[in-house]
Amino acid sequence: MNLKIAFSDFDGTLTLDNRELTKTFFDVIEHLKIHGQELVIVSGRSISWGHFLLTHFSNLKGVIMEGGGVILTRNKRNDIDEHLLIDQGEVQTLANVTEELQRVFPKCPLSADSFGRKTDRAIEFEFMQDEEIAQVLQFFKTKKVNYSKSNVHINFWCGDVSKYNGVMAYLEKIRPDVDKSEALFFGDAPNDQSMFQSFENSVGVSNIRHCLSRLEHKPRIILEGVENEGPNGVLNYLKKMNALN
Ligand SMILES: [Mg+2]
């Protein structure tokens, strides 16, 4: 394929074991730069994270954050523009539901970066009991609030937000010169499923095996072996693909 953009999830896909930002992450950026290809990170993390990524990695021109709720780009003055992909009414409904959630479940820990979020909020579920998690998810169902569980968070939002919608908005608004068929997506978890379902070129790094049986929609290509976990899998796949062209 004639690759122009590599879209990629962040946690567990560009970081190793959901934590380590290794040298391979920088190798991925460098490899794409050499080949004139763009990396666009598509993550459930907050807008503030997007600011961090765009500020400190000058090869990144745009990122999609909050699970597809917002696109951040750097403009000609080198400032960062925010493009919210949901309307103001949905932003307000989400604020109200979050307030109620904290009243009903005072022990439910919102993620430390929730204060900086605009189009979604996140819960740190690591230390929550299964029963407690089930009650919170039931609360979201009653309120008709959407949610998704990633490796680190339960994210929730109002409106039609998905990584797929974020990526399609990016192609439409920011890079209309790029066709869907000239782009790839890398992911590793259930919150990447909208991309696995609807995006033609999707690749799962090998650590996806931990949740493969729980996925309703799987990536078209699934990498195997410990050597293809996280960013190593991304880099190996890109190198192989670019060598073929
Ligand atoms: Mg992930």
Provide key terms for this protein.
about 240 residues; alpha/beta; Rossmann fold; Hypothetical Protein Ta0175, Chain: A, domain 2; 2 domains; 8-stranded mixed β-sheet; 3-stranded antiparallel β-sheet; 7 helices; 11 strands; about 35% helix; binds magnesium ion
User: Treating each run of at least 4 consecutive H or I residues as one helix, how many helices?
Assistant: 7
Order of strands, main sheet, comes to 5-4-3-2-1-9-10-11
Structural class: alpha/beta
Mean pLDDT metric: 94
How is the quaternary structure best described? Answer: single chain
Total strand segments: 11
Question: Going by CATH, what is the homologous superfamily of the largest domain?
Answer: HAD superfamily/HAD-like
- Termini distance? 7 Å
Strand and helix order? EHEHEEEHEHEEHEHEEH
Q: In percent, how much strand structure appears in the residues? A: 15-25%
Largest sheet: 8 strands, mixed
List the helices and strands and how they pair.
Blueprint: E1 5-8, H1 23-34, E2 38-42, H2 47-56, E3 62-65, E4 70-74, E5 80-84, H3 88-104, E6 121-124, H4 130-142, E7 146-149, E8 153-157, H5 163-174, E9 183-187, H6 193-198, E10 202-204, E11 221-222, H7 230-244
Parallel strand pairs: 1-2, 1-9, 2-3, 9-10, 10-11
Antiparallel strand pairs: 3-4, 4-5, 6-8, 7-8
